[in-house]
């Protein structure tokens, strides 16, 4: 029986490697896509015993180190007090920026938050800090886009990337581009690739990340993105500091991007990442429904 199960795994992965669709393979075997991708990933790791069953019993069960737990709680409190997003993913990114090692996993951070009853949401709406900021028009396509940079994100391996996400406020169509870094030229290339598919907007609304506004050394100078916008007749709008809800639609999309794409699609190479990103963009723009569109497709 064991040999039969291993042979089934081998045949399924070989069919997948030869280009047969995952849907057809899983339908013929009565297996799930998660099952196929798990064995394809083990095959790609190059272990000769990849098709053998492995015990799921943990080698050891140890409570998170108290020092790491206290750091997670302090980071969460700091983000909360700054009225920034303070969920597990935001905490993980903050730990990466701080260089904390060893770094807990997303699941471990969630357990720490739950154990310390730190999962409650803010009540009521965000309150502005008094910074005047106009509501940009969004009555027609490509009138106003919101954009944000997600990351760093990691594939199932050493590859690190940043996700540049843009959303049209009128149609809620998205444009995505994975960048190797958040350097100026990579950001310019990302926006240009997105605009070639979505169209060039009249306004682009972004936060105050250094990748967007330029250099903190020369805060009054025009960064590469500002110059690109002005050259193309696009008006850049920077939301007030520490008020991420101003970019609420793209922030909502970032959550969807994390849950429906990064957490579910297996990608091992930059080429696979680019293909999967464009496929998710097309699927979102063709199928996803938003309440602001009253359930209609864009």
Give a verbal description of the structure:
It is a single chain. The protein is of the alpha/beta class and 298 residues long. The chain has three domains: 2-44; 66-115; 144-293, Nucleotidyltransferase, domain 5, CATH 3.30.420.10. It contains eleven helices and five strands; from the N terminus they run ααααααβββαβααβαα. The chain has helices spanning 2-17, 22-29, 33-44, 66-81, 88-98, 106-115, 184-198, 210-213, 224-231, 248-262, 270-287, and strands spanning 144-154, 160-168, 174-179, 203-206, 235-238. The chain has a five-stranded mixed β-sheet, sandwiched between helices. α1 packs across α3 (33-44), α4 crosses α5 (88-98) and α5 crosses α6. The protein starts with a helix and ends in an 11-residue tail after the last helix. Residues 293-298 have low confidence and may be disordered.
Write the layout of secondary structure elements.
Elements: H1 2-17, H2 22-29, H3 33-44, H4 66-81, H5 88-98, H6 106-115, E1 144-154, E2 160-168, E3 174-179, H7 184-198, E4 203-206, H8 210-213, H9 224-231, E5 235-238, H10 248-262, H11 270-287
Provide a concise account of the structure shown.
The protein is of the alpha/beta class and 298 residues long. The chain is 45% helix and 11% strand. Helix 1 (2-17) crosses helix 3, helix 4 crosses helix 5 and helix 5 (88-98) packs across helix 6 (106-115).
Characteristic key phrases:
single chain; about 300 residues; alpha/beta; Nucleotidyltransferase, domain 5; five-stranded mixed β-sheet; 11 helices; disordered C terminus
Can you summarize the main beta sheet?
Answer: 5 strands, mixed
Any idea of the CATH topology of the largest domain? Nucleotidyltransferase, domain 5
How many structural domains does the protein architecture include?
3
As a percent range, the share of strand residues is 5-15%
CATH homologous superfamily placement of the largest domain = Ribonuclease H-like superfamily/Ribonuclease H
Q: C-alpha Rg, in Å?
A: 22 Å
Overall geometry: globular
Residue share in helix? 40-55%
Question: From N to C, what is the helix and strand string?
Answer: HHHHHHEEEHEHHEHH
Distance between the termini: 50 Å
The CATH class of the largest domain is Alpha Beta
Q: What is the name of the CATH architecture of the largest domain?
A: 2-Layer Sandwich
Side-by-side strand order of the widest sheet: 3-2-1-4-5
**Stretches where pLDDT falls below 50 for ≥5 residues?**
293-298
DSSP, total strands:
5
Number of helices: 11
Global structural class: alpha/beta
Average pLDDT over all residues: 79
């Amino acid at each position: 029986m064991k040999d039969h199960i291993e042979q089934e795994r081998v045949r399924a992965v070989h069919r997948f490697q030869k280009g047969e669709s995952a849907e057809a393979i899983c339908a013929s075997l009565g297996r799930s896509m998660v099952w196929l991708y798990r064995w394809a990933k083990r095959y790609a790791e190059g272990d000769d015993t990849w098709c053998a069953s492995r015990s799921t019993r943990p080698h050891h069960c140890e409570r998170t180190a108290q020092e790491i737990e206290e750091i997670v709680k302090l980071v969460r409190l700091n983000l909360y007090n700054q009225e920034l997003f303070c969920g597990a993913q935001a905490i993980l990114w903050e730990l990466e920026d701080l260089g904390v090692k060893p770094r807990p996993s997303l699941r471990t951070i969630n357990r720490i938050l739950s154990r310390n009853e730190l999962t409650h949401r803010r009540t009521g709406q965000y309150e502005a800090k008094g910074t005047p900021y106009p509501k940009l028009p969004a009555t027609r396509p490509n009138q106003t886009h919101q954009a944000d940079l997600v990351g760093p994100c990691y594939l199932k391996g050493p590859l690190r990337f940043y996700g540049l996400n843009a959303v049209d406020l009128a149609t809620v169509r998205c444009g995505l581009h994975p960048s190797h870094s958040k350097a100026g030229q990579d950001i310019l290339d990302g926006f240009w690739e997105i605009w070639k598919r979505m169209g060039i907007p009249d306004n682009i609304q972004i936060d105050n990340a250094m990748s967007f506004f330029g250099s903190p050394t020369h805060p009054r100078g025009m960064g590469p993105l500002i110059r690109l916008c002005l050259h193309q007749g696009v008006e850049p709008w920077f939301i007030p500091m520490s008020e991420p809800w101003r970019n609420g639609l793209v922030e909502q999309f970032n959550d969807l991007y994390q849950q429906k794409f990064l957490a579910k699609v297996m990608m091992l190479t930059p080429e696979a990442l680019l293909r999967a990103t464009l496929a998710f963009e097309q699927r979102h723009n063709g199928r996803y429904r938003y309440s602001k569109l009253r359930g209609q497709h864009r």
